Amino acid sequence: MMRLFCVWILWFGSWAVMVAQNASNPFELTFRLPKTVLADGTEAEKNPFDVVPHRVPGVAKAMAENATEAFRPFSVLPRGGGMTQPTLFWILMGMFGLLTISIAMNRGAVGKAWRGFLNESALTLAQRESAGIMGSTPYYLLYANFLLQAGLFIFLVTRVFKKEAYNNLGFLLFCLFGAGIMFLSKHFFLRVSDGLFPLGNTAQRYNFLIIIFNCVLGLFLVPFNLLLAFSGKLEGLLVFWTLGLVAIFYLYRALRSSALGSKFLADDQFHFLLYLCTVEIAPVLLLVKLAITQTQE
Questions:
Q1: Spatial distance between the Cα atoms of 179 and 186, rounded to a whole number of angstroms
Q2: Mean pLDDT for the stretch of residues 27-44
Q3: pLDDT digits (tens, 9 = 90+) for 60-82
Q4: 112: phi then psi, degrees, rounded to nearest 5
Q5: Which of 25, 202, 31 is nearest to 127 (CA)?
Q6: How many helices (H) and strands (E) in the chain?
Q7: What is the DSSP string of 153-197?
Q8: 43: which DSSP letter?
Q9: Which letter does DSSP use for residue 276 in this model?
Q10: What is the pTM of this model?
Q11: Cys-Cys with 203: which of 48, 62, 199, 288 at CB 3.0–4.6 Å?
């Protein structure tokens, strides 16, 4: 009886194997296999293990031939002229109107900013009085004037060196937006550094020092931007004169801020140098590199 049962088991297993060989594999994705056309016109599945002649891929061929175009960071900028002098005049008048409103709201803020620019104790007094919304709003308005004047200055300097290549409203808006992102990102990094490292009130004081210096620089840029826009043949001289003035401003700010960072240099040299390289030096080198790339185009 046991022998008969084993025979039945072997026969059933052999029959199941033969049926499985004839049936289709449910896990075989035949619709994804490539098709080939036979001589009689019918389609058949191509064997994926067939050896075919090697063909160089298109990407590898392009890289081997070095046919790829070099990256140009300024290729996305709106090119072309079209910015008329009357349009530029009304844009300047709009910015001047915003400055007038900012000064009229609190005339004493301009004097406090100027005294804080010259004196350390006056900076401390101005920072103490700027607490709250009412105290800080005049400085924020003056800072907004600086962002607008800085973006306009970048546009005017580019127009001097590149003539009509970027003399359009789209590029002006790009300069205004880029100046806002560039200068406001530094305040963001200061907030992050204040949260990561035990800086105490030093980060807040340095942040307010930057605001005061930029407010004063924005006031100085107003007449120079007006002269650059309508000076004609003297615009080249005015550009270098204004760039020298800006360099003196930032050199003076570096001397004033060095007194704040000197106490961290003795205890936390690594973190101080890391901040100095990433936040202070790297953005300047990046702007210089972009300017050199732009002049070579």
A1: 11
A2: 57
A3: 555 555 555 655 655 667 777 77
A4: -65, -40
A5: 202
A6: 11, 2
A7: HHHHHHHHHHTTSS-SHHHHHHHHHHHHHHHHHHHHHHHHHHHHS
A8: E
A9: I
A10: 0.69
A11: 199
Which residues are paired to 35 by β-bridges?
45
Token couple for 19: 């049926």
Query: CB atoms < 10 A from the CB of 227, how many?
Result: 16
- Distance, first Cα to last Cα, the chain: 96
| pLDDT tens profile 278-297 | 666 666 677 666 666 655 55
Q: How many CB atoms lie within 10 A of CB 219?
A: 19
DSSP conformational letter for 277:
I
Rounded-to-integer distance, Cα 281 and Cα 286, Å: 9
- Residue that the structure tokens 């029959």 belong to: 15
In percent, the amount of the chain with pLDDT more than 70 equals 61
Structure confidence by residue, pLDDT tens digits, 13-26: 665 555 555 545 55
Asked if 98 and 144 count as a contact pair (C-beta separation under 8 A), the reply is: yes
